Please model this.
Amino acid sequence: MNLKLYDTLTREKRDFVPLDPKRVRMYVCGPTVYDFAHIGNARPVIVFDVLFRVLRHLYGAEDVKYVRNITDVDDKINARAAERGISIRELTETTYKNFKEDVAALGCLAPTVEPRATEHIEEMKVLIERLVASGNAYVAEDHVLFAVATMPDYGKLARRPLDGWDPSRTAFAGAAMLTPREHQVLAQIVGCASNKVAATKLGISRRTVEIHRAHIMQKLGAKNSVDLMRIVMSRTPEDNPHQLSA
Model:
């Protein structure tokens, strides 16, 4: 029996050929444990459970390794813990326990390994420092952002090229309160004609763009969209306390 999987890059079904039939590995992005799982969270759990079972059937249960990470450090986690007045560890432990119970209720197999983000911070730092040193990432307002312009094929998988987007426009002084994702959204809001176009380029829904826009405006003190543009586009300290860096 040949297993065929859909290849997002080529947009076609292709034969699955493992690098090592005696060591088949599958990595899946797991939950960010700050709240109860919803039906959308269940979909990837079930989909990859089916794939895990098929791989075990074809290559043997002992020769398939399924890794699903647990994101237990995140801005949302910090905010939710502060909101509830509990420790981050207490929040993530409780939420992770709820997630495991929900997944078990769906009848899904447990992954081989479930690494926690907090257990691999040092390895992450090494990788990030390597990216910065190679010029593939840069520091902006205490955040490290991926320098997408250094990757010629960026956007190829989603078939959404950069189209001249200049990520440096997002690194403006006084905007340290924005998250890296909000910097990306802001760059598209400024450069696109509408939320719909920005949503298409970002690969998210128009509603999500609108939510990000509202949060960004609140953080920057913008009264409306025109004021937001004035804050972002103005380059004189007198006119704009959130001056763009050169």
Summary: The two ends are 59 Å apart (CA to CA). Helices lie at 39-59, 75-84, 88-105, 121-133, 180-191, 195-202, 206-220, 225-233. The chain has two domains: 4-119, 131-233. Residues 39-59 form the longest helix (21 residues).
